[in-house]
Amino acid sequence: MPWIDTHAHLQEHRFAADLPAVLARATEAGVERIITIGIDLPTSRSAVQLAAQYPLLASAVGIQPNHVSEAEPGDWDAIVTLAETDPTIVAIGETGLDRYWDRSPFPLQEEYFRRHLALARRLGKPVIIHCREAEADTVRVLRETIAADGPVAGVMHSFSGDAATAEQCVQLGLLISCAGMVTFPSNTALREIAAAVPADRLLIETDCPYLTPVPVRGQRNEPAFVAHTAKLLASVRGISPEELGHLTTANARRLFALSAN
Ligand SMILES: [Zn+2]
Predict the structure, then answer these.
(1) What is the per-residue pLDDT for 260?
(2) Which residue range is the domain that position 185 belongs to?
(3) CA 127 to centroid of ligand 1, rounded, Å
(4) Is residue 136 part of a domain?
(5) What spacing in Å lies between the alpha carbon of 156 and ligand 1's midpoint?
(6) Is 261 a domain residue?
(7) Gap from CA of 69 to ligand 1 centroid (Å)
(8) Are 88 and 57 contacting, i.e. CB atoms less than 8 angstroms apart?
(9) What count of other Cβ atoms lies within 10 Å of the Cβ of residue 161?
(10) What local confidence, expressed as pLDDT, does residue 48 receive?
(11) Ligand 1 midpoint to CA 7 (Å)
């Protein structure tokens, strides 16, 4: 079964002691590619380093909205230089808007979101969008930049919004990625949304080490567990896990221009 984990944070310290074993378990579970994602300049640099070291990995670089107020002068320029030059980078992000944690002033979050969108567009790479309790503003910024500068490819990662937001994002050309939250018993609405995403717009991810899916909740999340989320998604969409694997893997290869391993 080919799976692609489109969103992981393998540079987190919780993987420092056993990353080779984590990657071996991913391969054993059928994961053919993992995108490891930066949230600031140091983790973007380490994403690129890990992807250079392990062929199973690709990388994404960016400054996540909760970290934009900590960015030093020069950090953004360093992200741009990395994105322009490093061959392991398949996407820009993660970026986006977040009112849940409210760690950075919202206008600064929006300014950085727009910078990431412009960089992604300029380099012809997809953008990875984090959105938490900021759906209307995320759609507004996307609409404004798309109207002004043209389409941008990308994904709403670890989608947690409502059905209307999912539909608006699909209309804007984005993909919708489901993480372990979709397996949590209380998330009926999210399962209904996941069931309705058009087949060519659906992605899967772990967002590990966070959001561990049922039935392994309580453990550290890792890429091998993407199979649990995928099986749940297959059942809510009324297709086999094989079909779900083929379609989400094809979608991820297309969006991130990944070669088949
Ligand atoms: Zn993330």
Answers:
(1) 64
(2) 3-256
(3) 12
(4) yes
(5) 11
(6) no
(7) 17
(8) yes
(9) 22
(10) 98
(11) 6
Q: Which H or E run contains 129? A: strand 127-132
Cα–Cα distance measured from residue 22 to residue 24, given in angstroms and rounded to the nearest whole number = 5
Asked whether residue 221 is assigned to any structural domain, the reply reads yes
Cα(9) to ligand 1 centroid in Å equals 7
Block mean pLDDT (10 aa), the chain, length 261: 94 97 97 98 98 98 97 96 98 97 93 98 98 97 97 97 97 98 95 97 97 95 97 97 96 92 53
- Residue for token digits 């140091």? 42
Distance 84 CA to ligand 1 centre (A): 21
Distance 210 CA to ligand 1 centre (A): 9
CATH number of 89's domain: 3.20.20.140
CA of 226 to the centre of ligand 1 (A): 14
Number of domains in the chain: 1
**Distance between Cα 66 and ligand 1 center (Å):** 11
Distance from chain centroid for Cα 5: 9
